[in-house]
Protein: Pyridine nucleotide-disulfide oxidoreductase
Organism: Reyranella soli
Amino acid sequence: MRLIIIGAGFAGMYAALSSARLRDIRGVSPKDLEIALLAPEPTLVVRPRLYETKPETLTAPLQDVLKAIDVVFVQGRAETIDTKARAVEIVTADGPWKTLNYDRLVVAAGSRLFRPLIPGLAEYAFSVDQLDDAIALDRHLHSLADRPASRTRDTVVVAGGGFTGIEVATEMPARLCAIFGKNAEPRVVIVERGDAIAPDMGAEPRPIIEDALREMGVQTRLGAAVAALDGSGVTLTDGARIESATVIWAAGMRAAPLTAQIPGERDNFGRLLVDRELRVPSVPGVFATGDAARAACDDMGNYALMSCQHATRMGAFAGHNAAAELLGAPTKPYHQEAYVTCLDLGPAGAIFTRGWDRKVEMVGAKAKKTKHEINTEWIYPPRPERAAVLASADPERVTAL
């Protein structure tokens, strides 16, 4: 029997760990149930940190972790999924195509930044969506030091006032001063089409976020969106023009395109609708998890967000349940009643909230310390020792926070 997991992000990693844990509990040999993790590289990209400096360092190796629990790593990229034949066609690292058959499949292909057809967006916008994107932005920012100081050079426009946009924007003044010199006066502008910054955060946290932006001199343009980009700036939907050498797109996510090959219902974000065990109901043998799935967290109408906090636990449940079906073990309904947010606010600290109504628990330096622990410890893979890896993957205990 073979269980294939597509994707080595937070959901895919924990799907592999959790399925291996159940295989170990049931005393089944890896020869009798092969667990294969398919991804281009055996690394976890620590995507929540890509707004930081030195993005090339923000990965964690997975090869030793997978070896410790007898998970096979298949290096390649999934190109097509044939759910009737139960086969995945991949392009391997050295070029040739290869077909892998599966008995169960976990789709943990993640998400991609939503890039609408705005004139100039593809040519001129930067992002922190994927590792290569963040590295390209970092190189661009350093290259600006070779240009003469000007309003255009020193202005950064961030399109999108959600979580990612705010974390990018609040990090930018310090990053630019480190590049241009401590006496530089960079200008950072967040463009948000809604009538409030941090539209999903709610009324209690928002004043704290707004105060932090003011403290750092980060400007906001509300009620307008980017209509067009060119080599020297952006034009907004209200006709205003902002001259800028750096435009960072941070306006929404969609499930990875591979997810569209699964013949199931999906939501407006392209996520597959799944049942409480994270199965795709219309496709036998297929589970979806992480950013590829729209899953209910509880019985109160709350659904998992596109975040590592939800992907980590969802992955553990999906891996467990896919293996359970093959091993004749009980499945476990996914649930995740606890929900917190920890938003980095640069030099102003951070803000930590709890619950879907986002009650503020910590702000400033105390919240920043928690954010640092999340970013540098809690979301990283377990140490590559068999007992530690298996112990980390109990779906009922897994949480990124």
